[in-house]
Amino acid sequence: MITVRRPEDIYQAEGRIENGTFHGRWHFSFDMYRDPEHMNFGPLRVFNDDMLSPGAVWPLHYHREIEVVTYCADGVFRHADQRGEGGILKKGWVQHTTVGSGMYHSEINDLKDKPMRFIQMWFMPEKPGLTPSVEQKRVDRPERTNKLLLIMANGVPDALPIHQDVRIYSGYLEQGHSAEHSFRNGRGGYFYVVEGGPVTVNGKELPEFGAAEIISEQHIKISATSNAEILLVDAGYV
């Protein structure tokens, strides 16, 4: 079963932050957004697509007991935490943060003259009290063109580690091309059109900013009507 979530059905938030403003598309209940129909997809608890105005900063704030995945969709993202550690992400690059026992961190638009857009996913960790850490991976477009590239998984070489049984794929499909993916029993996917499109997933059309919850499907074929940037989270959904 594939349940399409159209862009207009996904909650949108906006407000002021340090040095500027933000606009967010929040897929699951988060902060002031509460929707019992959209709480999570298995261990995926948060899926936020946020745009920060030039130079804007989400100030240092505290989290604990989450696995954070950040994907830079446009511009230059900068991460910082209370230890002075962080990193720079450019378009298509990805970062993993184990918040674990607790961490203050901040998300920053590193450019003063251009908006920055990032997608942040929060997962419940496999166990509590993990030691905080930050790792990131540079992913250039040719590496993910016309395929699904595994960028994060537990114990898979060349993929960033994550303390949860999930796999995250990114892809850039050129017009007329497709990619395929198979799910193990009991697993499904949360799929998102980051940019471009439309694309079809097993024949169901999704425009830019459209999403789909995929359950009880053994195999999917993703086809691009126009060039499209995509993300797929493979996880147990029960």
From TrEMBL:
Positions of the Pirin N-terminal domain: 22-122
Domain annotation Quercetin 2,3-dioxygenase C-terminal cupin: ranges: 154-234
Pfam families: Pirin, Pirin_C_2
Family to which the UniProt record says this protein belongs: Belongs to the pirin family.
Family annotation (PANTHER family): QUERCETIN 2,3-DIOXYGENASE (PTHR43212)
Protein name: Pirin family protein
Source species of the chain: Methanocella paludicola (strain DSM 17711 / JCM 13418 / NBRC 101707 / SANAE)
